[in-house]
Structure formats: structure tokens, C-alpha cells
Amino acid sequence: MIEGVDYSGDRPSVAGLVAAGKKFVVRYGGPGGSWKHIDAAEASALIKAGLSIVANAEGAADGLLGGRSAGIDWARQADAHFRAVGMPADRPIYLSVDFDVTSGQWSVVADALRGAASVIGAGRVGVYGGRRAIEWARRDRVAAWYWQTYAWSGGVWVPGNHLEQYRNHVALAGGTVDLCRAKAADYGQWGQGDDMPLTNADADLVATRLLGRILGSTGPTVGVALQDTYRGVKELQARPLADVDEQALAEALAPLLQPGVTVEQLREVLASVRLVPGAG
After folding, report:
1. Residue 153 above 70 pLDDT?
2. Are 51 and 192 in contact (CB under 8 A)?
3. 185 three-state secondary structure
4. What is the dihedral of CA 167, 169, 173, 175, to 10 degrees?
5. Residues with Cβ within 8 Å of residue 23, at least 6 apart in sequence
6. Cβ neighbours of residue 233 under 8 Å, at least 6 residues apart?
7. 157 exposure class (CB count in 10 Å sphere: 0-12, 13-18, 19+)
């Protein structure tokens, strides 16, 4: 697990967070009061210190009871805010269900998450909340990223969480934070120093390795298209080349590798895949 924090107005020392062994921070942006929002200076300081950033959107704690229009508004504001401070366009935004949502309220909240998806894409919608919010979002497929809080969870953690908030209101590094842990290699983070775009040289190497592994029977035309895709998709992020999880990318592409596959299909898939550290 990877340890991190989230916080709002009472901000800790960046150096203190690093000294405490924290690796990421979850920060607010978009809806809600500007007093709790991350700005460009803070984002830069976090990144320079080696801390990753995760995007969270919250207006009022129960603001998603505003339904689809609320989700659209939150997503628009948050995406603009985080993009302005350096977030890559493919990173998720967690929308907060910061109350003990009931079954009678859930359909409205689900509509809000669908509204957010209409703005930023379903693959970038995350949800923060208690056990029921996470379970219902997964069941109804209205989010792709899951950040569960211990509140309203009865001590039960939902399998497959990306993030978990396990303790609130902790004095740390001169501020007050909530303690979080990441349960997956990719939990929506961005900004860390080794999250650099692929260079053309890296693109050629990765493309060559992939061609030898999974594209050998498709011919040179597809090979050239794959190389061009890597060069052209500027927002595709990668860890150092030695750690690229080729198998994950191979599995994502495999269903398209059949007669009649088009360059456009390959481009669409590659544009949606984020390379993450390999397991081996």
C-alpha cells in the first residue's frame, strides 16, 4: 500500500509530509470555496518534493443530490481547475458523496455521476463515499475509480478500491489531514517526477517491442500506425521504459487484432490506455 493524505484549508508543510513518508495528496479543485482549492504554486511545490496529486471535486457535502446538472457543473469546474494547475487530460476526478447516502437518494446521485461522465468521459469519473456509495457506483457502472472512506462503512472495505481514507482529522506536518492509502498502482495520481510523456525515441522502442510481441502478423502498415500513435498522443503517460507494463497494453489491444481492424480503432484504444509500472 502507498500512504498519502487529503486536506482542505488547514494545510501541512510539504517537507513535513515527505518526512512523514507520504507519497501523494488528494486535493480539491473546481466547485466549492476557493479557500480549500489547490493552486498552481502548491501543485508545483508538491511535485518538486516528489509527491503525486489526486483530483477531488466537492461543492456542498450533499451537492450531488442536485442530480445530472450538478454532476455536469462539478465536472466542468473541476476539470478546468485541475488542468490549469497541470493535471494531464487523461487523469480521473473523484466526485465526493460526502454523506451517508440512502437507497432512496442513490438514483439522483447516480444521475449526477452520469452527468459528470458526459463532460469528462466515463473512464475519468471517480467517486468518494462510504461503503454503499462505492458498492452502488460499481454495481451501476457510474464510476471507474473508487475512493472509500471509513465513515458510513461499518468497518467493511469494498474489494477493488483505488483509495481508502482510514482516519480523519490527524495533526501532521503543521496542519490537519485525513490519512489515506492507495490500494492500486494507478489510483489516479499525476505530477510525480517520473510521470513524463514518452519521447519519440521511447515510442519507437516500445512500438518495436509490442510489434514483436503481439502485432507480428498484422503487417508493416499497422506497425507504422502504432508508432505514429505513440508520437501523436501527447497526453499518454509512462513510467521509465524498463518498467512499462507491456502485457497490460497487449491485453487491451488484443481484441482489436483481427482482420479488418482499422488505424482509427488502434488510435482510440491507445489514447485511452495509461501505461503503469509492471508487476515483474
Report:
1. yes
2. yes
3. coil
4. 150
5. 2, 3, 4, 50, 51, 52, 182
6. 267, 270, 271
7. middle
Residue by residue, DSSP assigns 103-116 as HHHHHHHHHHHHHH
Instruction: Tell me, rounded to whole angstroms, the distance of Cα 204 from its chain centroid.
Output: 27
3-state secondary structure of 182: strand
Residue 276's pLDDT is 38
Beta bridge partners of 189: none
The rounded distance, in Å, linking the Cα atoms of 165 and 16 is 20
Whole-number pLDDT of residue 266: 54
Residue 279 has pLDDT above 60, yes or no: no
Instruction: Report the distance separating Cα 91 and Cα 79, nearest Å.
Output: 10
The packing angle between helices 131-140 and 103-120, to 10°, is 60
| Structural contact between residues 263 and 219, judged by C-beta atoms closer than 8 angstroms | no
Mean pLDDT of the chain: 81
> Where in the sequence of the chain do the CATH 3.20.20.80 domains occur?
2-182
Query: What is the tally of helices (H) and strands (E) in the chain?
Result: 9, 10
CA distance 273 to 252: 8
Answer whether 103's CB lies under 8 Å from 61's CB: no
Task: List the beta bridge partners of residue 116.
Answer: none
Angle at 84 (CA atoms; ends 87, 114), nearest 5 degrees: 65
Is the pTM higher than 0.85? The answer reads no
pLDDT in tens, 79-127: 999 999 999 999 999 999 999 999 999 999 999 999 999 999 999 999 9
Level-2 CATH architecture, domain 2-182: Alpha-Beta Barrel (3.20)
Higher pLDDT, residue 258 or 38: 38
